[in-house]
Structures are given as structure tokens and as C-alpha cells.
From TrEMBL:
GO cellular component: membrane
Name of the featured protein: LemA family protein
Transmembrane segments: 6-28
Pfam family, any one: LemA
Subcellular location: Membrane
Keywords tagged on the record: Membrane, Transmembrane, Transmembrane helix
InterPro entries assigned: LemA-like_dom_sf, MamQ_LemA
Family under the similarity heading: Belongs to the LemA family.
Coiled coil: none
Amino acid sequence: MNLPFLLIGIVVLLAVYLWSTYNSLVVLKTRIKEALSGIDVQLKRRIDLIPNLVETVKGYAKHEKSVFENVTKARSSLMKADSMSGKAEANNMLTDALKSLFAVAEAYPDLKASENFRDLQRQLEDTEDKIAYSRQFFNSNVLEYNTKIKVLPNNIFANMLGFKEEEFFEATEEEKKSVKVTF
């Protein structure tokens, strides 16, 4: 008589555990999507600021055509990127192109003193900080999710239910290099 109740109890506990695990994995997966959306929002903001910045600098540096073309190409690549690695690569291309743009701006004291340029530069710096935070938030969620699907016994159920490991938003080799500051 006790054996059927024990078996029913075990089945119920297993079902509750599976249900709970599935729901927590769905929540974590949704957080990852939300965090990726946050990165996209900041990248879009960055993309929207760049034409204004380019136009401001163009007025002072008409002969720096290749710098503007590189910024435009990198911006276009970021807008078209649809995978995590594609976005990371395009983001890095844009970062490099913007470094060149700011180097050009350094050569024009009137431009550096322009309130419009300084405001755009501050907004872009603020956006860069938000992108960094968004990437960190995304990676924290990916870490939590990937850990949850790898630990026992969750890994058995996660695999059965089709949950796969997510990719981190990683820094490139260029971003990992130390910055050299000279005076």
C-alpha cells in the first residue's frame, strides 16, 4: 500500500522539479534576450550619433575623406550585423574608425573648442559607457544561464528540453591590448 504512494510522490516531486527547472531556464533565456536588446539599443544610439559627429568634423576637415568613408562603412556594417559575433566585429570596426575621427579632430583646435562637437563627443562617451554596461549585463545573464544548464541534474533536463549554451559578448584582441598614454 505504501509503495504506490511512494512512487506517486517521487513522480510528483520529479515533475515539480522538471517544471521548476524548465521555467527557470525560460526566465534566464528571456533575460539574455532582454540584455541583448539593451546592447542593440545602445548600439543604435551610437549609430544615430555618428552622422552628426561626422558632419561636424567634415566642416573643419574637408580633406580627410578616407576617415569619413571608414566611419560610414563601419557604421553600415554594424547596422547590418545580425549575429552576436557579427555585431561584436562591426562594433570593433566602428570603434577603430571613431578613434581615427577623433585623431582628425585633434588637429583642428577650432573644432575641439566647438560646443556642438564637445556635446556630441560627451554623448558618444556616455553611449560607450552604456554599451560597456549592457555588454556586462548580457554576459552576467549568459553566465548564469550557461551555469544552470551545465550543473547536475539540470544538464540532463536542459539537454532533453533543447536548451543550448549561449555565446558571450567578448572583447576582441584589439580591445584587450593595454592603452599607452604619453604626455
